[in-house]
Structure formats: C-alpha cells, structure tokens
Amino acid sequence: MKHKILIFTEKAGHLSLAKAAESFLKDLPDTKIKMVNLMDEKIAWGFYRISYRFFPQLTKLPFEISKKNENLMEAVRNYLVLKYRKKILDCLKKERPDIIITTYFGYIPVLDEIKAISNFRLINIVSDPVSVHPLLLSKEADFNIGFERYFLETAKNVGLKIKALSAGWLVRKAFFEKIDKEETRRKYNLEDKLTVLVCGGSEGSNAIIWLLPFLFFSRMKKDFQIIFICGNNKTLKNMINSTYRIAKKINPKIPKILVIGFTNKLHEFMAISDVVVGKAGPNLMFESISMGKPFLAITHISGQEDGNLKLIKERKFGWVAEDPVSASKVLKEVIENPSVLKRFKHLKKFSEENYKTGLKLAEIVNKMINN
To answer: In 3D, which of 63, 51, 129, 103 has the Cα closest to residue 308?
Structure first.
C-alpha cells in the first residue's frame, strides 16, 4: 500500500518550494506525491504581479502593518477559512493523504483548524527566510521548517508556540547535481566565456530593463555573454530583443545573448554562468548559492524580502545594488576582472547546508510514514 503525500502550494516561489520538496521525496519507497493548488486569489495575485514587475516598494506598508496587528491577521485567517474550508475538506476527503506539506500560508488556517480531528501529519515549509510574517507559521503542524533562527524569532515575538525545525533553505535537487558545462553550452549555442545570468523571476521583474543600456552599449575590455530569463513577462522579453537589435547597429563589441521566457531548466543555465543577477527572492538567491554562484540583487519586494538583502550582505552571498549605476559598476568589475569571483568559495558550505535540508525533510517524512 502506497502512502500518499499531498503538497499544497500556489504559483511562483511557493511552487518552486513545492518542487524542491518533491525532488527530495519522490524516491522514498511506497509513496505517492501529488501537488495541489486550490487558490484562486485573482485580485491579490494581480496586485502581487504589478508589485513584482513595476512597484516592488508597494508591499512594504501592508506587510509591516499586518504583521503587528493581531485583529487584522485574525481577519485574514477567518477569510481564508470561510473561502477555502470546503475546497480543502473536499480535497482531503477525495485524496485521503497520510502526510500534508504546505508551502503557502493560505492553507494554514484551515489545516490548523482540522488537524486535531484528522489523521494526517502536517509539515509547514515557511516561505520566507528572514522577514517572516506570523501568518506563515502553523501552530498545529508537526513541523514548521524554516531558515535558521529567523522564523523562531517571529513565533516568539507573537507568543506562538510551534514545533519547529530550523535548517538551511530547501532547494530543488537538480541544483546540486553535476552538470556537463561544455555539453550544456553547446546545447544552447553558447560559448566558453564569462557568462552573466540575468533572471527576472517567474513574473519577470522589469528592473532588468535599467541594466540594458550598460550591458548593450558599453564597450568592455573583455568579451562576455548574457543569458536573460524573463519568466512569464513576454513584454520584457520583447523589449530586451528590440533593444539588442538597436544596440547591435551601434556597438561592434556587443555581447552575445540568449533570451528565453519561463523555464524549468534554470539549473542548467546557472551551471554555465559565473554570476547571477536578479530580484532578491529567496528561491533564486539560494539556488544561486547552492550552485556556488555569487548573487547580485538589483531589486526586491519590500517587506517580505527586506531581510534577504541583509542576508546577502552579512553572509557575503554577493552584492546588493538596487540602482542601475551601482549594479553596472559591480558587473563591470566582474566582467573586466573575473578574479573577484574567487572571493566566493565560502558559498560551498551554504550549499551543503541547503542540501542537508532536503535530506532532513526526507528523513522526517520517512519516519512519519513508518511510525
């Protein structure tokens, strides 16, 4: 008889976390894993997409206000219970899971409400590493798994008693596997030279646009190439290509580029790159670190990702340069003096910790199945 694991998730980074969990659990014996997305918050998601692409600073105020206002948080929990209780209960009745893993806070109020009268075991994966909102924590979960001490501090600050496992960050197993760089370069028609990977994230942050004048019109002393990953933002992809066509007529030393949309092969592009540039979301940041690549943060979502910038600086994960002039200076130094990349050998220990986190999750789930 197979034991069923349901992974409740949402779009974007929450789905990345869910896939990371799945990658470490799929080889457990006698288990069946199913991903489930029951969320349909179109208005909220629309606001998030606008913030993500255009106005990442918009989220600061609601984040700070809501995390300190228990009445407001309770209102959010009540709303989620009223809207999703039936959907979640119908799903559980149909699937009858032995273990539930959630990577999105929207499921927590209902799961907390029914946990005591249900047979499933519950694991909550906290979806922000440092700036942890109290709504991300489950009081009834068998384990809240979060990054280091930060989520424990949030629980303590709001007087919430939780069962917790502090660890590294959960990253998809593919980011730890050995990849043939030469073969991968040939696969994407790229050359053996310094490579800058510019990631827009799942929704394609428009902060990338401000780097195009430097990347396309500067005449660098050394040759390099750029991979752009635009996520689901087709407008961003078109803008990069059209700007490149104009720049190519002016700059005879323009770098070679590859521009793609959403991809499940990020680990391949990261493997053949020397530095990763993008929004300081936790998944992209820790995926970069897990592959030993320094990370340049050029934007972040205010509030929930504020702590990520602090982490980059404190742990020396890379650089924070959220204006195009500063970011251009960092990239110029990397491109013209690649020896600066030797400063980041210490990333290996963080990569190892992230890998161990996946193994710990698998160990916990295996014990739940066998007990």
So the answer is: 129
